[in-house]
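haha ok so turns out i had the wrong file open the whole time. this is the CORRECT one, sorry everyone. sequence first:
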Amino acid sequence: MSTQIEEQPEADMTGIGATYREALISGRHRAAVWGIGYIGASTVLALADNRIRTCGYDTDQLQVTRLAAGITSAAVELTDDVTVPLGDDVLVHFVAVPTERQAEPWLDALADVIGRLARATKPGRDQPPLVIIESTLTPGTTTDVLLPVIEAAGLVPDKDLLLALAPRRDWLTESDKNLRELDRVFGGVGPNSAEAAHGVLSILCRRLHRANSHVEGELVKCVENAYRHVIITMANQLTLAYPQVDLAEVLRLAATKWNVQLIHPSFGTGGYCVPLSSRYLLQGAQHHADKLSLLSAAVDTDNRMRRIVANAVAWQGPVAVFGLAYKGGIKVATLSPTIEIAARLRELGVPHSIHDPLYTPEEIERITGSPAMPDPETALATAGTALVVTDHDAFLDPRFVGLLTAARDAPLFVLDNYGLLEDTQWPAHVRYRRAGNAGWLAGAPR
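then structure:
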């Protein structure tokens, strides 16, 4: 049975956990964070807030420079020199490297980090290094990939090198859904690893839940995100099956029942977590993937939605696409619906351009392969459709709304992924639909 472990003051903690906690709090040892993107950077900041001596490492000098600009603590060192986190004074390693590439599970970076740590570790240390993996893993990764790497270096896992999993749940745009306040699940490859991880994580997290083993701990993040993936894609399947019904309204009313979550139809999911979770589970199931038919259908529907949206607006071009980030306020374009929508518009020969306030024109063109907007006003002057893909606050600005509602010679169709602008008073020459409204995909082949 898993165990919920409430926050424990240092004085109440004993054993291995207390030893590792004290080693960091006292300053005798440092923590290293491998990979300082959004997740790794927030780990660095959380450690700094708790006055833990920390080294943040990334292969990308730009990431190092960007994070360094916001760090004032003298206890934090940021570097792209891999020898620094491998130093003898580093006891705890947080690993937050990417585990996906081109929308598929990818383990090269993770295996490289674990291999480096294993080769740098001498067996028989009184206090062996502890590795805490924060990245989301395909089920089976620890047993099939990581433990063999450790053993190949002549080490005994849970004795010479401690290994634990503690995937992140933070929602980086909402301050109350943070590393400190959200419940966190962790699991170790053995009792020593689990106890040491408990001691270290208790510095950062208020409520911890210990899994029975790394096997269960590895599955949790994928399963919780796959729950969301399935229900989101069910909303999209409903709107495809009942195209002339306002499914956004149906789902809003359904959610008034106490045990029904409110989900809206959309252009498709994006980001590192939800759309990848089903793929991780399908890959991890190996010979039993056929038992996960719901997940296979979720992946298929999610992939098709982007093309369906592009097909729906192709005859109403040119198309002005607003938003590349998969979610407002976060500069992450991984699996953003915009990427595949743009690809389909190119296939169909539909003139289009893309604008996102978080990205430069060069970044937009490199990521999507489509032209960036010279400016929204110029693009909208000739556009037949405005696709509002991302719920950026900038798209609520009265100046932007004014561009959409401005007088024009030809009608404009505004299709809104999140319903960001549904309270706007639209003039007669603008036809507005949010994803899920009746007829929002009129003309699109299913």
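The first strand starts at residue 3 and ends at 6.
again sry for the mixup
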